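Justification of computing resources. Each target in the renewal requires a structure prediction run like the one illustrated here; the chain below, 114 residues long, is used simply to show the kind of job we budget for.
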Amino acid sequence: QVQLVESGGGWVQPGGSLRLSCAASGSICSINAMDWHRQAPGKEREFVARITNGGSTNYANSVKGRFTISRDSATNTVYLQMNSLKPEDTAVYYCKADTVRTYWGRGTQVTVSS
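Resulting structure tokens:
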């Protein structure tokens, strides 16, 4: 079992920045990769960014150059640094961990508006 807790969401004006955190606990050694996904009102959940155990990363085209995923192995925490935020980035952001199963956190709300 893996437990995931997201934090760091909030309200920010367009062009601003936020950093999301995802703290993992439980069977940490079984995690192969961790992702961030997001779901805007009335839309399907979509992939945002991924980081593997080997440190490889990839991003959705919509966030490339603006978002950065990273991890701190000492604290079992994955981060999502979000810069140059746009209103269309408004969504609930979810952390996901892949083992032989998939685990999701409960999400954190990000609102970008003036």
